[in-house]
Amino acid sequence: MQATSTKPIIAFHHVNKIYANGTVGLKDINFEIPRGQFLVVVGLSGAGKSTLLRTINRMHEISSGEIRIDNEPISDYKGRALRQLRCHIGMIFQNFNLVNRASVERNVLSGLVGYYPTWKCVLGLFSAADKQRAIQALKRVSLTPKIFTRADELSGGQQQRVAIARTLMQDPKIILADEPVASLDPRTTKDVMDTLQRLNREDDITVIVNLHSVALARQYADRIIGLRAGELVYDQPIANVTTADLDRIYQAN
Ligand SMILES: Nc1ncnc2c1ncn2[C@@H]1O[C@H](COP(=O)(O)OP(=O)(O)OP(=O)(O)O)[C@@H](O)[C@H]1O
Predict the structure, then answer these.
(1) Which of 2, 14, 52, 103 is most buried (most C-beta within 10 Å)?
(2) Closest atom of ligand 1 relative to the 54 alpha carbon
């Protein structure tokens, strides 16, 4: 298990999220995530896993309560402060969100979008130093030979690793991964999960992953939290997690 600092990098205090149509996304969520933890979030479809992840980078706004990152409340961040927050939080999606017709290099460099004016990104005007960083990022995900390949010519697992390399350009302190392996086969799933684990361990990046697979959750997590109908119903370090516990979370009612 990964040794983690006890100082929380993320803290939820009485967080509620109610969508405009009245659906409760999150209900009185309270927990802290220590820096460097590999946290897996499990729960039935609709339990609130994506909502929880997306409140951390303010893709979704909370309705009440407080989220702190590095002990700073983030709800009032605007403009530059919000951009900076998002710069240091990488996000990985189930469907990779790559530009299919662009090269791997171009996709990785697009992780710098928060650091460059948009027009420079569109024209691909990146510095030689940043191009070198892109090569290094691809090395970290073992994809250097694919640098000039078009993204849509890669396998799903390779595409997800390009997405991870893209987040590395942000120099992230947190990576949020929303069902990152849901559309992958078992072998490429292992490549992607191993890559996330390596970055967590080697770079001390705090990783939060939503997973449907209980087996994967048990294999990679330092800690598992479980959501049901927007409520945090389970929170245990991996050493205490039992199959019976996880079965209970996956009971529909
Ligand atoms: N934009 C939205 N407007 C209204 N309700 C929403 C919105 N997004 C999500 N919800 C609802 O909020 C609840 C939590 O959804 P969320 O996507 O967070 O669950 P999830 O656990 O990630 O599900 P899945 O595993 O299927 O992705 C669900 O009832 C969902 O229908």
Answers:
(1) 52
(2) 18
Min mean pLDDT across 29-43, 188-202, 237-251 is at 237-251
Q: Look up tokens 């409760």; give the residue.
A: 24
177 CA → ligand 1 middle, Å: 16
Cα–Cα–Cα angle for 216, 220, 222, rounded to 5 degrees: 130
What is the distance in A from the centroid of ligand 1 to the CA of 79? 27
pLDDT on residue 7: 78
Q: How many domains does the chain have?
A: 1
Pocket test for ligand 1, best of 42, 49, 55, 183 (most atoms within 8 A of CB): 49
Condensed to tens digits (0 to 9), the pLDDT of residues 92-115 reads 999 999 999 999 999 999 888 777
**Which CATH number covers residue 147?**
3.40.50.300
3-state secondary structure of 13: strand
Which pLDDT score, from 0 to 100, does residue 4 have? 55
Enclosing domain of residue 62: 8-250
pTM of the entire predicted model: 0.92
Residues lining ligand 1, Cβ inside 6 A: 19, 21, 23, 25, 43, 45-51
Answer whether residue 2 is part of any domain.
Answer: no
CA of 23, closest atom in ligand 1: 5
Distances (CA, A) of 106 to 10, 79, 128, 130, 162: 31, 26, 13, 11, 10
Minimal CA–CA distance to 180: which of 167, 166, 193? 193
Least confident stretch, 111-120, 132-141, 149-158 = 111-120
